[in-house]
Design a protein that fits this description.
By secondary structure, the protein is mainly alpha-helical. It has one domain. 75% of the residues lie in helices and 7% in strands. The chain is built from nine helices and two strands; from the N terminus they run αββαααααααα. The protein has a two-stranded antiparallel ribbon with strand order 1-2. The protein is globular, with a radius of gyration of 19 Å.
């Protein structure tokens, strides 16, 4: 397959992965997960407590870093903005489906359907704000590192941009969703400082591990779509 065709197919695939992971993260954010690890961390100990969206959302940074590398800064910013718009579309579609009348013979009840698919206002507020800030920061950091290293060290810009943006995302989401928004909006429980710090540490630990582990896959995507070298647009855009 010609290089231009591979890049075109890869662009569609990366946009699809980004939007799919983003929408999945929004739908799974309200469930809290717990994983046991063989060592202790500050505030969370040997139990990592994190929102159900953590894994799906981490994939958005993998997709956006690949996209930034291959298609440039401007295209990556467009991807982030399109993802935000599609999240709003998803929320509107889910809301209208919840509000629509339910058939009396539906196997899934109205309350169960609503509880599973519709996040509370605090989760929505936290996730949308965290998304806008962290994803744009990821693009900025990725290309800042790229420019300062002359296009070398893909691993450094992948890990560096993702690690910093995931820290921003985690702090904003957890703080807004589980402390600020519940206090202001009066929805959901207001978590204490220890719980907030536990969620931040647990979520960030997983995201940081994914940022490190996904680096070989970023190299593989670049090699598969651009023959090992990113297109010139990534360096000049």
């Amino acid at each position: 397959m010609p290089s231009s065709d591979r890049l075109a197919a890869g662009q569609v695939a990366l946009v699809g992965l980004f939007v799919t992971a983003l929408v999945t993260a929004q739908l799974t954010a309200s469930k809290l997960l717990v994983f046991q690890i063989p060592f202790g961390l500050p505030f969370t100990g040997s139990s990592l407590v994190l929102p159900g969206a953590a894994l799906a959302y981490a994939l958005t940074f993998f997709a956006s870093d690949c996209y930034s590398e291959l298609y440039g800064r401007r295209a990556a910013r467009t991807l982030v903005n399109v993802g935000f718009a599609m999240t709003l579309v998803m929320l509107a579609l889910v809301y209208t489906t919840i509000e629509a009348p339910i058939a009396p013979f539906s196997e899934v009840g109205q309350d169960a359907f609503s509880r599973v698919l519709w996040s509370s206002a605090n989760i929505v507020a936290g996730s949308l704000l965290a998304y806008v800030v962290s994803q744009h920061w990821d693009v900025i950091a990725f290309h800042a590192i790229r420019e300062r290293t002359g296009g070398a060290y893909l691993w450094l810009r992948n890990v560096g941009s993702t690690a910093s943006s995931q820290a921003v995302d985690t702090v904003i989401f957890v703080t807004v969703a589980f402390a600020v928004a519940p206090s202001v909006l009066g929805v959901g429980p207001v978590y204490g400082t220890e719980q907030i710090l536990s969620l931040i540490v647990g979520q960030y630990a997983l995201k940081l591990a994914i940022a490190v582990l996904d680096t070989p896959f970023v190299y593989a995507v670049r090699r598969a779509l651009a023959g090992g070298d990113a297109p010139a647009v990534a360096a000049t855009d």
